[in-house]
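Minimal example, chain plus zinc ion.
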Amino acid sequence: MTCAEFAELVTEHLEGTLDDREFVLHLTECPGCPEYLDQLVRTIELLRVSW
Ligand SMILES: [Zn+2]
């Protein structure tokens, strides 16, 4: 899986509709994407709070 594919799957992952195996594998292999996911989750939480 590439980082672009990962980014496309992030929303599905957060909705819980994704088969996570390759997604999780990429998280363990990629230095940048765990941080990306972390930031995204935080952003979404912030949006939820402000709503
Ligand atoms: Zn990546």
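The chain has a mean pLDDT of 91. The CA atoms of residues 4 and 33 lie 10 Å apart.
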